[in-house]
Design goal:
The structure holds 2 protein chains of 2 kinds. Chain A is built from 15 helices and 2 strands. Chain A is mostly helical. In chain A, a hairpin with a 2-residue loop joins strand 1 and strand 2. In chain B, the strands form 4 sheets. Chain B has a 6-stranded mixed β-sheet with strand order 6-7-8-3-9-10, with helices on both faces. Chain B has a 5-stranded antiparallel β-sheet with strand order 13-17-14-15-16, with helices on one face. Classes of the chains: A mainly alpha, B alpha+beta.
Chain lengths: 274, 348
């Protein structure tokens, strides 16, 4: 961190860099948005000035049922998030409040599973899904999303729960609370922010997930990621339609993210500042 | 039969034995204070009674029922924590009525009980605030209120005043004493502050290294300490203790009752500073004028210092030559183990 005196000495420079990097990050999204409203010809020509058209959206909706994919995305992300919270919360609870000398190792081990590339597990999971007849089904995706997000969820909830002072839990117990009362009346209200952030983050991760939905699903259980992929097929690239499909796919999560950005940032920096 | 009974309570944390076998009987309505230096196990003992730690061996009985392994929630005890441990997301009213809510007490009864407690503690106008909006003293009162609303079998206090400033501490101490007098509830109070122990307790339990050193009324401990540790722990400034070989003049005053390997103790108020040439000669090392009292530190031998306390002010200065007079009747005798020698034992 720069010192306050330096920070106030170059406000213009600072503002310039902030805008520069923000625009740099935002540019692909902007280009995507522009391209979605072009014709295929304009898209390839990279024209900056053009007459916007909704043709690409109409064609995407006509060729593939957007709502079908959106529904699949919604179901898989919401159900996997709820399921994940239900499993992660008790796990994090026991690790945060009944620590043993192995707790830290277990947490590290859980996190280490995220260090393995997903493709390493592709063949076994594909074969398993195939064997029990769950290829191209929503439950298969939900299970995979839940499991792949669980380590992060446990870790985040663990950090949130650890912030609850032990005295308060002891006071609750002496007031006559059983484990459930303790969770409902003390831990839940005190860590609502952390739980919400965890849920939001996992919702976003599941919504944006592409690897498993592309590999485990096709027409029936495909999510919006699969919809986008349809437009980058070997028969040729359709920039405008690809952009239109992408915009449709990410629009809900952008709107959602905009409204929950405060919670998301709090969750991602949990325990970092205090 | 006593109300709360501790039978040979032992607590081990891994290989470390923190409480080494404590027996104690507490009667209904008694105000008991656990006191002792840091690490003596007084807080641990309180937490064992509260059920916040598991008892390694021994048993605990409350009101005729064994509660050794009962979870805290079922023991019907209320505790006031050093940190207050108020529920930050609840109003003062909800904090105080939480236990009643868990016990499914009728809301109208809850309201009445909370309002009555709030009135006693001067909290009525703060009931709708959250703990964050209260001062330290007010939070402390809410923590006490949360305990009295429930009318539990035993009140447990874990160093409740140590986060308050000196003035507020004195005031709250008086309030706690009044509260105990009006409610008559059985109370166990942990503190390292011996003034709190002396002023609040019916009986004081002095702990050291996980063992009880002595149990008795405050003045019993002051006048008839069981050993040198209690003698020096209770009372400010500390009791002067001099070994029999260190100061022959004092040993002569003590007479034949003092074993040659023992030591002799005298409270500072019985050490009289007189003019030089009388009594035991010494030089003034330090004068502490406290207003109501004056403490005079006198060096009487190369490594023997006595503290005298008098209510008169003094013009003595550092380095002045003085004499010390001590009455034999004010002396306490200790054997080589530090155990107090009573007159009875002497006669036998």
């Amino acid at each position: 961190m720069s010192q306050p005196s330096q920070a106030t000495a170059f406000p213009i420079v600072r503002t310039f860099f902030a805008w520069f990097f923000a625009l740099l990050i935002f540019f692909p999204l902007l280009w995507l948005g522009l391209t979605a409203f072009k014709t295929e010809g304009q898209a390839i020509a990279s024209e900056l000035f053009f007459k916007p058209t909704l043709d690409s959206f109409v064609e995407v909706q006509a060729r593939s049922d957007y709502l079908h994919y959106a529904k699949n995305s919604l179901i898989t992300s919401v159900v996997s998030t709820i399921l994940g919270l239900l499993i992660a919360a008790p796990a994090a609870y026991s690790m945060a409040f009944f620590r043993t000398n192995k707790t830290r190792d277990i947490l590290m081990w859980m996190l280490s599973t995220k260090m393995m590339p997903a493709v390493g597990a592709l063949v076994p999971i594909y074969v398993m899904a195939q064997t029990i007849g769950m290829l191209d089904s929503l439950p298969a995706l939900i299970i995979v999303f839940t499991l792949s997000n669980l380590p992060i969820m446990v870790w985040m909830l663990y950090s949130a729960f650890k912030e609850v002072p032990n005295d308060i839990l002891e006071a609750v117990r002496l007031d006559g609370a059983n484990v459930w009362d303790e969770f409902r009346h003390a831990i839940l209200p005190l860590t609502m922010g952390g739980i919400a952030s965890t849920g939001l983050l996992c919702l976003v991760l599941a919504w944006n997930e592409a690897f498993w939905s592309l590999n485990l699903t096709s027409a029936h259980a495909g999510t919006l990621a699969a919809l986008i992929a349809q437009y980058s097929s070997p028969e040729g690239l359709f920039w405008a339609k690809l952009s239109a499909a992408s915009l449709l796919a990410i629009a809900p999560i952008i709107v959602f993210g905009w409204f929950s950005q405060k919670q998301l940032v709090q969750g991602l920096t949990f325990g970092a500042v205090k | 039969m006593s109300f709360l009974q501790l039978k040979n309570i032992v607590k081990e944390f891994g290989p470390v034995r923190t409480i080494k076998g404590v027996d104690l009987q507490i009667d209904k309505g008694e105000f008991i204070v656990f006191v002792g230096p840091s690490g003596c196990g007084k807080s641990t003992l309180l937490r064992l009674i509260a059920g916040l730690e598991t008892i390694t061996s021994g048993s605990l009985h409350l009101d005729g029922r064994e509660i050794t392994n009962l979870p805290s929630s079922k023991r019907d005890l209320a505790m006031v924590f050093q940190s207050y441990a108020l529920y930050p997301h609840m109003t003062v009213f909800d904090n105080m009525s939480f236990a009643l809510k868990l016990a499914k007490v009728d809301p109208a009864v809850r309201k009445e009980k909370v309002e009555r407690a709030a009135k006693i503690l001067n909290l009525t106008q703060y009931l709708e605030r959250t703990p964050k909006q209260l001062s330290g003293g007010q939070r402390q009162r809410v923590a006490i209120g949360r305990a009295i609303v429930r009318a539990p079998k035993v009140f447990l206090f874990d160093e409740p005043l140590s986060n308050l400033d000196a003035a507020l501490r004195g005031q709250t101490r008086v309030e706690i004493a009044n509260l105990h007098r009006s409610l008559g509830a059985t109370t166990i109070y942990v503190t390292h502050d011996q003034i709190e122990a002396m002023t609040l307790a019916d009986r004081v339990v002095v702990l050291r290294d996980g063992l009880i050193e002595q149990v008795g009324s405050p003045l019993e401990l002051y006048d008839r300490p069981a050993n040198q540790f209690v003698a020096q722990f209770i009372g400010t400034p500390q009791m002067n203790v001099v070994s029999a070989t260190a100061l022959p003049a004092l040993t002569r005053i003590a007479g034949p009752r003092l074993p040659s390997d023992g030591s002799v103790g005298v409270r500072p108020e019985y050490v009289k500073v007189v003019g030089s040439g009388q009594g035991i000669p010494g030089t003034v090392e330090l004068v502490e004028a406290l207003g109501s009292d004056t403490l005079i530190h006198v060096k009487v031998a190369s490594d023997v210092h006595l503290i005298a306390r008098q209510s008169d002010r003094t013009s003595l200065k550092l380095g002045d030559a003085v004499g010390i007079e001590i009455d034999q009747n004010a002396l306490l005798y200790f054997d080589n183990q530090g155990r107090a020698l009573r007159e009875m034992q002497q006669a036998a």
